Amino acid sequence: MTSERLEGVTSDQISQALFERAGAVIPGGVNSPVRAFGAVGGTPRFIASARGPYLTDADGNEYVDLICSWGPMILGHAHPAVVEAVQRAAALGTSYGTPTEGEVTLAEEIVARTPVEQVRLVSSGTEATMSAIRLARGFTGRPKIVKFSGCYHGHSDGLLAAAGSGVATFGLPDSPGVTGAATADTLVLGYNDLAAVEEVFAEQGDQIACVITEACPANMGIVPPLDDFNLRLKAICAQYGALLIMDEVLTGFRVSRSGWYGIDGVAGDLCTFGKVMGGGLPAAAFGGRAEIMSRLAPAGPVYQAGTLSGNPLATAAGLATLRGATDEVYARIDGAAATVAELASDALTKEGVEHRLQVAGNLFSIFFAPGKVRDFDGAQQQDTRRYAAFFHAALDRGVYLPPSAYEAWFLSAAHDDAALGRIAEALPHAARAAAEAE
Ligand SMILES: *Cc1c(COP(=O)(O)O)cnc(C)c1O
């Protein structure tokens, strides 16, 4: 890893050539849409390697990484303990299709840190939320679910729903290919709107299996729950016999050792996890009280399965990551995140750019909008063209921000003074570009 100053990004020719090759054989050239830079324009960088807080692209440019694989790389890239755990596991065989000790140890670690009593391991956050909803429906015997607009829970059909007109109407498909039938039992409400939740339960409470919410929304930018929102959701669910699913795929083991639960203390009846718990390999989980989880096959009748669930490499990477994620690590990340948030906000203020910093533990995002953002409608008021200019000016100076104004910024324990220094040098240029953008 070099620590001398980066001279700026000199060329993206190889990335351009790779993006062209990719476009011929992969739709849009990427395997997950946000990677394509659609929201900010330009050529996505093809990353060849990463270490600590740095990414190196195919053209040899180095960037301070403020995405951290969208959360998982909490210890930094290629952390020696994680690399060693994966290498050791790989040498023992990559998959058996049988139970292994590593799955038990990882499940014990998750149970020790969170309110859940039992967990089922899966391979992606999408699978975790999809399975948790099936279990909630199987447990309650009810069809409907409540979700909030702007909360992302992966790409399963029933969760790709947009709000219909009026609070008590069914959800509408949010993507071609999702049928009206798949979203008809999904009720979509505005985030932080307790009156709407109360209204929908008063009308249809005996039909509602669960409410699913991001424990602290981070997929429309950071929009924390107001005051006692989560607590009230839990009380309303309890009153009507519905389950509360706390989606902690992003916040789990990131904003604290116990995720957002470690900050606001509201336990979901079911919780979903992913990202950090896989340490950069595909691992995710859903869990809850034993009384609910025991309804899952083979203990109970609700079917759920996976060929690679609890994969030995993924459990080894996840366990090494969680074991490395000590109180000291969280304190470091909290400090680094506060520093970067302040640097960014100060730089924008200095250039007179209207913006709003929103923080959730060590996660934050910047809305190019004037006031406090409390729901998805508010998030959509921002000036995304300013963000695109801000993003590209930072990228040109070797700082890799999320390529969308609707994403959180992620720090790791590896973001040391050298990395923070590079960010401090780049941000004033980015702020100027934002100010000059029309
Ligand atoms: C990332 C994310 C998911 C989906 O996880 P994948 O592993 O991408 O399928 C679900 N919920 C939340 C809150 C997320 O941030």
Tally of DSSP helical segments = 14
By CATH, the superfamily of the domain at 80-324 comes out as Type I PLP-dependent aspartate aminotransferase-like (Major domain)
Distance between the termini: 38 Å
Q: What do the pLDDT scores average to?
A: 95
Cofactors and ligands present? pyridoxal-5'-phosphate
Q: What is the SS-derived class?
A: alpha/beta
Give the proportion of residues in helices: 25-40%
Supply Rg. 22 Å
At the fold tier of CATH, the topology name of the domain at 80-324 is Aspartate Aminotransferase, domain 2
Strand content: 5-15%
Strand order of the largest sheet: 4-12-11-10-9-5-8
Biggest beta sheet attributes: 7 strands, mixed
Poorly predicted spans:
1-5
Using the alpha-carbon principal axes, give the shape. Answer: globular
